[in-house]
Specification:
By secondary structure, this protein is mainly α. The chain has one domain: Methane Monooxygenase Hydroxylase, Chain G, domain 1 (Up-down Bundle), CATH 1.20.58. It is built from four helices and two strands; from the N terminus they run ααββαα. The termini are far apart.
Length: 118
């Protein structure tokens, strides 16, 4: 039992090392030659005109997150639909419940006006 936790701990340590080592090595070995031109804000190589820090509406992000949530949930429904003829009654009812929850989320988002593109 304790060896199982040892493997999990070792896996987490190795995962942190594999994720952090490239960042640390790149930070140590990368050249640092800052100047005002490199630090200036630009977009597509063109000099900006006016205020460079523009605040976007949060509704765009909420719209994108709503799309992402429904997209991921459809990915979960695909295996259920493929194996539909082999499922027991419990499997079918759990899939129907999942679709009902999806529909309830869609109605809640619609009522809040998240799906309105302004």
């Amino acid at each position: 039992m304790q060896t199982d936790w040892l493997y999990i701990g070792l896996f987490l340590v190795v995962a942190v090392i594999f994720a952090g080592a490239p960042l640390i090595i790149a930070g140590l070995l990368s050249p640092r030659k800052p100047n005002p031109i490199k630090s200036s804000t630009y977009e597509c190589g063109i000099e900006t005109v006016g205020e460079t820090w523009v605040q976007f509406k949060a509704q765009y992000y909420i719209f994108a997150l709503t799309f992402l949530i429904f997209d991921v949930e459809i990915v979960f429904l695909f295996p259920w639909a493929v194996a539909f003829d082999q499922l027991t009654l419990f499997g079918v009812l759990s899939g129907v419940l999942f679709v009902f929850i999806l529909f309830a989320e869609l109605l809640a988002a619609w009522r809040k006006g998240v799906l309105e593109w302004v």
